[in-house]
Amino acid sequence: MKAKVLLAAQLAYTACWEGAMALYTRDDTLVPYLDPKLSARDRASDLMGRMTWEEKVGQLGGIRRVASRSNGKLTFNRTSFEHIRETQNGQIGPGFQFNWAEEVLPVLNEVRAEQINSSRLHVPYITISDSINGIWVSGGSLFPGTNAMASSWNLELYGKAIEAIRDENLALGIQWVLAPEVDLARDPRNGRNGEMYGEDGYLTGEFATRYIQVMQQKDENGWVRVATTIKHWVYGQGSGGVNRASMLGGLNHILNDLGASYVKPIRDAQPLSLMSSYSTVDGVPLSINKYLLQDILRGTLGFKGLIMSDANAIEYLYTESKVASSAADAAQKALKAGLQHELHPSGNGVFTTLIKAKEDPQIVSIVNSSVLALLEIKFLTGTFDRPLPTQENLAKTLRKEEHLEINRQIIRESVVMLKNDGLLPLKIDDVKQVAVIGPYADIINAGMYAACNATDPVYGSTLRRSLENKLGAENVLYSMGTNSILPSNNTDDKIIKEAVALAKKAGIAIVMLGSGLGTFDPATVNNQRTDQEGFAHADLNFPGQQMDLVEAILETGVPTVLIMSSGQTFLLPDSIFGRTNAVFHSWLSGEYTGDAITEILFGETNPSGKLTVTIPEANGAFPVSYDFLPSDDAGGFGTALLYDWHWPQVTRSPPLRFGFGLSYTSFSIGNSTINVDGARDNSTVKLSASVTNKGGMTGKEVVQLYFRPVVSLIEFPVMKLIGFQKVSLDPGQSEKVEFSIPYHDLGYFVNGEWHVDGGNYTFWIGSSSRKEDLTQLNVTIS
Hints:
Layout (H helix, E strand, L loop, with lengths): L2 E2 L12 H7 L1 E2 L2 E2 L9 H9 L4 H6 L3 E2 L4 E3 L2 E3 L2 H8 L5 E2 L8 H18 L7 E4 L16 H5 L4 H17 L4 E2 L23 H15 L13 E5 L17 H8 L1 H10 L3 E4 L3 E2 L2 E2 L4 H11 L5 E3 L4 H7 L7 H11 L23 H20 L10 H7 L3 H12 L3 E5 L13 E4 L25 H9 L4 E4 L14 H13 L2 E6 L31 H10 L4 E6 L8 H4 L4 E4 L7 H9 L65 E11 L6 E10 L5 E11 L10 E10 L4 E9 L5 E3 L2 E3 L3 E8 L7 E8 L1
Parallel strand pairs: 4-7, 7-8, 8-9, 10-11, 11-14, 16-17, 16-18, 18-19, 19-20
Antiparallel strand pairs: 1-2, 2-3, 5-6, 12-13, 15-20, 21-22, 22-25, 23-24, 23-28, 26-27, 28-29
Organism: Clonostachys solani
EC number: 3.2.1.21
Pathway: Glycan metabolism; cellulose degradation
């Protein structure tokens, strides 16, 4: 039997695997791995059996940066590409963020077609990319950051946003994304909080599950549209320095705190891949932590997909952690621990050293299973079967009006109002001029994972531009207000005095402060970046001269609105919060954030965002998350303080707490009921409440449900979120909200085993995790 391999030039560039399959036959029968009627696993197994050792090792890496940029133009280094492709050809990525999608697609299609035509078995690349605010390169819909979209607390709307992002990725031929990130933003000092959904495992798990389910939804051919990568398993957190507080560490902490956000997505959405973190846990870097990768992740949590490294992580085993003696040693240790694919930004991966280990039967066996996992993803996503994407469909899909409308709506619902003393909403007839002040008032601060030149108007209107469109440019007095957003010894306050003069002249000041600014590209504004990956915060005050600026504006007594723009939270001492008339957090921007804030300022949109993180009261008052253990709020002695969190004394329940957010209308949540349906293991706790809009404006409220067992097997947090619903109500309208909580979902891990307490439970229902916003309900499960 002789295979008829008739792939030729007509498949190049517009290569279509439907045509390839029709041509590649054996005695008029499709070679099994090209037969779309077979399962992905069967096709992958057949193909792997035909591959050489070098071809297998080549699947374990790839080329993430196909296209670069120089002098404002896309560049493609053919020499470098071919050098890497020889040994790393499992996946490719689009490369530089500021290249436009229509420029990138021809290059991607060229190398994708070449790979199909030139590789011995015609094994295609799968195209992989980060995807947080939208597609990785420029030209797509620019959604806000993860923390912003989560602040909407609107899962249905979020699902629509991810559907739009998914379809725009597919139009570029991206079939595998490095998201969602389910790490918990429990330490305000972490620079990557903007990539996260918040501090709570339940909320994060719900949003991550929706992300995965929408991205991995199958199309009409039965192919997974876009494979996902849940990450980063598992990312740590700090402790708080309190006398009697809990110590972080151990399996219960990992599974119930850090890993809580993985449980539902793995169980209900089954992400096709997972990225291990850079973290060292109990002295063992995750890249070689077989216990956490195999026993816990695969065994306890039941993860079945491919496990990949984070960028450069395997290399760091011998360059930083010194737990490997060489690249080859690091590669073999990581492979044996459970890593199956290497992510490397430059393509100079260390898994290529495995080529020399073909005589080691253990390595051969693990490589085979790793290659099988990757090939299965390729077959599941139709990488062997889909035609290459076209410029026509790209132009039709990117920035569709329905995508932009979803974008507008989720941004409107993501802005969180933290204070309003009655100044807002403004009346257009009463506002003659406004002073717009601050270094973030005239940029799009979308985050380093966004394809966004912060000053380019193509990405939307800044707050300044949006207000100019509303009021007329002559009525918007703008000042950056600071010489630098970086911490410095610059004491020149000339620009601050100019901003103060503008505030006095206008009679109202809208001050936008924050941190961030810039992408991965050092040639843009990275030299002024103060937030996101690689930037932890020792000080949670506004960086640079921004604190001096806002205090100087407040000293004038001019009505002032403060808007925060960043992926992080900031300290809001009484000297600022107490004197500001209104305060918002807008998080990492999308292209309509300026427009949404303007609509909110003038009452055209009623704010409905809620905090997904708790804002600390002081530098050093960490951890600050709402779901602390009872013993974390103890420690006083005799006539000393009742508790020692902290001195000068602050509490474990700061006012700007998880779940908190204001509206222009007022809501009441009452008529709460609770009962248990069924017996013990098969029971369901059913709760209901009536939500009423008691104000004069249509608005949206997030009804939140928290719980804790009265007595637990191990120490349990003071409360944990277990449900939420967002409802829209007209003035005077009421709606009944119902929750059904399966008994199983009330549990937690004890030494790796899922445990659910019987007996007495306390539930709370209300509008935030603050006790004054909650109604307590008690029930017994017997």
